[in-house]
Write a structure and sequence with these properties.
35% of the residues lie in helices and 24% in strands. With 282 residues, the chain is of the alpha/beta class. It has a single domain, classed as 3-Layer(aba) Sandwich (Rossmann fold), CATH 3.40.50.300. Helix 4 packs across helix 5, helix 4 packs parallel to helix 6 and helix 6 packs parallel to helix 7. The longest helix has 17 residues. Pfam families: ABC_tran (PF00005).
């Protein structure tokens, strides 16, 4: 695979090295992510309809709501793992998969879309590590073949990331010899190895035994506190959402019922459906 130019600017280590606090870039000319009139249907089932919202650069937005409300679909659309039925998604003001051309909705070339997605990282419910590769081989694969990094540079970055997620000693292990929590931390390191501007997190603790959840959440808290990566996450870990989010959005039936700062949504939600949902999960 030929190298693709990496146009991302924030780096996972930037804020940690300078000691700067994470921030929302209110001076940016365009949102990091914008959904405009987004629709998604699976056959006759409409999952998302007329969805409009933005995520600012550096903002951490958590999507909550019952299973089947469209939250994971939103992440998969941004990662281009699902195709839009209608509407548009923009990354830093640029169309991701479709654009409006003289009033017509036109699909962009796959090459253009692939270049855009190098700026986006995603961590899934399941770890999706390559079982035939060691931990460090899993992490360096994409930086070498997609970003065009040298092996030495990719290995050095991977070792730094493994130290960050507390797995330096597991570099030469195969994923099958790791616990679920360790595999998920490797998956986080693998996503960060691409120096993404945007990190998508899809129920990253749902497949873990309860005693393994804490270590994974601690890594994600560290990322939220020490970097300026934009984060869009789906989680049922409400305390975690309260701690790391700038904004929480409540979804049900593919619609945004309400949104606001975590303290408002968790302490004084205005919608009865939000109140009943939170009472069932808190």
């Amino acid at each position: 695979m030929p190298p693709t130019e990496n146009t991302s600017s924030p780096h996972i280590g930037a804020s940690a090295q300078t000691g700067a606090s994470p921030h929302i870039d209110t001076e940016a000319s365009a949102p990091a992510i914008e959904f405009k009139d987004v629709e998604k249907r699976f056959g006759k089932t409409t999952v998302l309809e007329n969805l409009n919202f933005t995520v600012a650069p550096g903002e951490r937005v958590t999507l909550i709501g019952p299973s089947g409300s469209g939250k994971t679909t939103i992440l998969r659309l941004v990662m281009t793992l699902e195709e839009l039925t209608g509407g548009y998604i923009f990354i830093d003001g640029r169309p991701l998969t479709f654009e409006d051309r003289d009033g017509k909705r036109v699909e962009l070339p796959k090459k253009t879309t692939r270049a855009m997605t190098t700026r986006i990282g995603m961590v899934f419910q399941q770890f999706n590590l390559f079982p035939n590769m060691t931990v460090i081989e899993n992490i360096i694969e994409a930086p070498i073949h997609v970003l065009g990094k040298s092996k030495d540079e990719a290995v050095a970055d991977a070792k730094s990331l493994l130290e960050r997620v507390g797995l330096s000693e597991k570099a030469d292990e195969h994923p099958t010899r790791l616990s679920g929590g360790q595999q998920q931390r490797v998956a986080i390191a693998r996503a960060l190895a691409m120096s993404p501007e945007i990190l998508l997190l899809d129920e990253v603790t749902s497949a873990l035994d309860p005693e393994l959840v804490g270590d994974v959440l601690a890594v994600l808290r560290d990322i939220a506190e020490t970097t300026d990566i934009t984060m869009l996450l789906v989680t049922h870990e409400m305390q975690f959402a309260r701690e790391v989010s700038d904004r929480v959005m409540m979804f049900d039936g593919g619609l945004v019922l309400e949104e606001g700062p975590p303290d408002l949504i968790f302490n004084d939600p205005s919608h009865e459906r939000t109140r009943s949902f939170l009472s069932s999960v808190l």
